[in-house]
Amino acid sequence: MTAAAPIIDGLTLADAPRCAALEMQMFAGDSPWPEAAFRAEMKAPYNTYFAARESPGAEVMGYAGISMLGGPGAYESEIHTIAVDPGRRGRGYGLALLRAMLAVADDAGAPVYLEVRTDNHTAIGLYERHGFATAGIRRGYYQPSGADAYTMVRPARTEHTQEAPR
């Protein structure tokens, strides 16, 4: 039996406690975001945050956020975070969240930037399959662990740009 596709909707302020709990579970060694950080990020007008759920209104199983910077004709976007409950990985939650964020960037014709741990091969592969390339490395980016990060970028999509295979 195939699992149902995740439901992607907007992350709400009521979801902040669950997101903070997931952060503590997944990123305890690298300054996990507290509930207040999620609330502040969701309130910023240039940010868009998504939730992945098993069904409408269900508990958050994954979350992601993207910011839109600049102005018409010169937008850039940056993926702030994308995370999936470890018990739900491999079920399409990360892919669905990434596609939602890329749609935001594509609607604005914006390139997309992100940082990813150099040892997160699963995420790097997902990003590469969606048109991202490594642009540089940030030594000691994640704190306090000191883990390195790649900066990756996906060029802006236009109606004439071929999309990477999914």
TrEMBL record:
SUPFAM superfamilies: Acyl-CoA N-acyltransferases (Nat) (SSF55729). It holds the Pfam family Acetyltransf_1. Residues 6-157 form the N-acetyltransferase domain. Keywords: Acyltransferase, Transferase. InterPro entries: AcTrfase_RimI/Ard1, Acyl_CoA_acyltransferase, Bact_Acetyltransf, GNAT_dom. It comes from the Bacteria. PROSITE patterns: GNAT. NCBIfam families: rimI. PANTHER family: AMINOALKYLPHOSPHONATE N-ACETYLTRANSFERASE-RELATED-RELATED (PTHR43877). This is Ribosomal-protein-alanine N-acetyltransferase. It comes from Gordonia pseudamarae.
